[in-house]
Amino acid sequence: MRDEIVMSWERCARAGLRPDRFEVPYDADVDSRGRLCWAAGPVLDGVGDDLDGTGVGLLLTDQRARVLARRVADHDTARLLDRVQLAPGYGYREEQIGTNAIGTAIAGRGPALVAGQEHFADALTRLACAAVTVADPATGRVIGVVDVTCAADKASPLMLPLVKRAAWEIGQRLLDDSSADERILQEHFLRARRTSKGPVLALSRRTMLVNGAATGIVEPADRELLWDSMLRSLASGQQQPFPVPLANGRQIAIRCEPILDGIRLVGVLARPRTATARTHGAPERRNTASTPAYGWSSLTAAELAVAEQVAQGLTNREAAAHLYLSPHTIDFHLRQVFRKLDVRSRVELTRATLRRQAEPAL
């Protein structure tokens, strides 16, 4: 057995998976109309036409291995994929499904070819699949996977080169879409970096550029939180530095200004600093010494708002629209809510919310 397959099986064993158990998680809240699907659409259509009559299905997933799109030309192949729930909304992360090209490509951060008995789950051993990750050209982060899957007896050594080419074409479309705005963002960042000795960052919906002084203050995981906070600040006309919570629980103060292409917002230029003192015009920080780490009283105002929206049955995107946040920020807050309330699903969160509402007010 190939080394990469052995390593994948070892990861599956550590995750507690069993070959005879096969449960594919489903999530209706996938972004099937986002930038990745826009870039991939024409590529999938073209490759899908080329695969007509070959018995091979073509799939696109997001960075969490959830299927976003599928191209299948014949009913037999569609039934083959449906039997193992390789369909939009279903997730194929390696730690949940076992060794498979989609999940293993993400886990191994490289191309993956898995055929027949190389699959960890017994239910997948009749299949062969090849997958390659798609990276955002601006950040280098994995944002999706292109996969081809067929019956194991129809496997071809050309499967991997095919998905590599498709992934490259999708990357080129992403690059063409972002190049102009990224150049403008970079020009403003370089100009600010030359004239400032303090921390500087330039931020867009997809990119965060930081100088050396800012690397110890913000991290890549903070990008979505920073972006949402800055957009709200610009919309409100905020002139003074304002506090922004980070993913690690710290808080910084930010002063920001828009980066424009004519009248169109391209990004934001910001100068962050650690919020050691109360920022003028900002609400007082919570006293973390007296704030409990768990339970309802440990939730921030943002986390409580997200919990209430989700408990009402809203998806992440619907909650984001109600709260004027991005779905990624909703996802971040929701994970904090789950951790602090010790719940593992939206259903458990709803039950916890109902119990809280039924409690008599003190």
UniProtKB/TrEMBL annotation:
GO terms for molecular function: DNA binding. One of its GO terms (biological process) is regulation of DNA-templated transcription. SMART domains: HTH_LUXR. It holds the Pfam family GerE. Coiled coil: none annotated. InterPro entries: GAF-like_dom_sf (IPR029016), Sig_transdc_resp-reg_C-effctor (IPR016032), Tscrpt_reg_LuxR_C (IPR000792), WH-like_DNA-bd_sf (IPR036388). Residues 292-357 form the HTH luxR-type domain. Keywords: DNA-binding, Transcription, Transcription regulation. This is HTH luxR-type domain-containing protein. It comes from Candidatus Acidiferrum panamense.
